[in-house]
Amino acid sequence: MRRRTAIIAGAGTIAGLLAVSVSWWYFDWGHAPVEKLHHLHGKSLDVGLADLRQPDRQLDYTMADCPGGEFRVELYNTYPPGDPKAAQTRIKELQWHRPRYHIAVWLHQVNGEWVVLDTCRWKEGIVF
Contact, 91 vs 114, CB < 8 A? Predict the structure, then answer.
């Protein structure tokens, strides 16, 4: 009788751990609703983004033609809108869309190489 109890308790523990793991994954706990991916900042396009694979969307624009909005406001901290030189800066925006969250990475050219300028990771349902 003891063995059955131990096996049932063991199965219950495994089921409980599995439920916690699945809910952690599903609800994306451990992440803020909107956050930066600081570990990517300053990395080159090839090195920093290798783990993310192909982006779902890519935009290329100058700061003069930046789509704007709150979503891209951080770009203006580096390239102010009133600066004519900043207006000509090229930006590459990459986006990945996952079931529960999205990622955007903005790159600019430094010495002819695309380098991560800013990042944003936001949960599904967040509106900018």
Answer: no
